[in-house]
Amino acid sequence: MSNCCAGEAKTAAERKLLCIVLILNFIMFVVEFIAGWLANSSGLLADSLDMLADAAVYSLSLYAVGRSLYYKGRAALLNGYLQLSLGLLVLFDVARRIYQGSEPQTDLMVSISLLALTVNMICFAMLYQFRKGDINLKASWICSRNDMLANIGVMISAVLVSKLNAAWPDWAIGAFIALVVIHSSKAIISEARISMQESKITE
Length: 203
Hints:
By secondary structure, the chain is mainly α. The protein contains six helices and no strands.
């Protein structure tokens, strides 16, 4: 009975945590997307779509909490394919901006990236204890870790855009974020497939 209660308490705690990081990431998606559009920044737009992907990851992870290994694997698989699609979409946007040209607004890039970094640090700290546990919570932790690196990259690119008076650093960080998202998505897809195969063996 005590083990049952402990399991229910753990599930409730996981759900609460995922709800918090989901809300934080969705808010930052809206903020970064609007700022990226106003700042004409590929880096910010890429980071905002990454935030949206994370919000989707947390939503699906929330769905998977307390469910069987098969359903957890299926949710993680959907997470991976979603991130892969968004990563490819960002690469397309970077190519479009290279072709059409752009003039990123560096002050807005730095301020919004700093805000996003703060939010992601909070999410990273909250999810740290789950980095080696449930596949969906682990995927959520990986998302937060990647986001912090992306935020720092956008700030560095903003400085370079200002110093060099050229837009290419913004395009470069946008493409880099997209490639990081694509790489992470492949790892999540691989682990999800393994998880689903293991669930079939144990059933």
